[in-house]
Amino acid sequence: MALMITDECINCDVCEPECPNSAISAGDEIYVIDPNRCTECVGHYDEPQCVAVCPVDCIPGDPDHVESKDQLQLKYEKLMAQG
Question: Could you tell me which residue ranges the 4Fe-4S ferredoxin-type domain spans (predicted)?
């Protein structure tokens, strides 16, 4: 499943540069994750890098974008093909 950033985000700026798919960007009030680009780092790393660096643990799975590992892998491959 894609990840999401909750309103507990403190805008510390550590997650955005860690995302290999450029899925994280600054929103109006907190950082946001584009579910069309988030693969939970499948294809790049063994664990989501944004979750690993988040100091306030505010990046859970997004229940509105549930995906299997296979679906995330296919999304990763599509993103890589697009360049």
Answer: 1-29, 31-64
